Amino acid sequence: MLKSGMMYDSVYMQLWETITKGKAWKGELCNKKKNGEFYWENTIISPVYNRNFKITQCKYTN
């Protein structure tokens, strides 16, 4: 979903490291539309927990 190929792998590593620690990641990403066009967006990606306090998914806000 978010991997346009235009960002350094280190950005994604930091993103996932932050989320798996239970924190929200905030930053700017280069994303890609269905038509192949690239665009920049400010985004927040937050972990979503189940009843057992385990991360089950991420909430993506732009």
Description:
This protein is of the alpha+beta class and 62 residues long. The protein has one domain: Beta-Lactamase (2-Layer Sandwich). It contains 1 helix and 3 strands. It has one helix at residues 9-20; strands at residues 25-32, 38-49, 55-61. It has a 3-stranded antiparallel β-sheet, with helices on one face. Strand 2 (38-49) and strand 3 (55-61) form a beta hairpin. The protein is elongated and about 40 Å long. The mean pLDDT is 89.
Topology, element by element:
Blueprint (H helix, E strand, L loop, with lengths): L8 H12 L4 E8 L5 E12 L5 E7 L1
Antiparallel strand pairs: 1-2, 2-3
User: Do you know the CATH architecture?
Assistant: 2-Layer Sandwich
Low-pLDDT parts are none
Average per-residue pLDDT, rounded, comes to 89
CATH superfamily: PAS domain
Morphology: elongated
Helix content: 10-25%
Instruction: Count every beta strand, where a strand is a DSSP E run of 2 or more residues.
Output: 3
The number of domains is: 1
Computed Rg: 13 Å
Quaternary structure: single chain
CATH topology: Beta-Lactamase
Largest sheet: 3 strands, antiparallel
Spatial order of the strands in the main sheet? 1-2-3
N- and C-termini, Cα separation: 13 Å
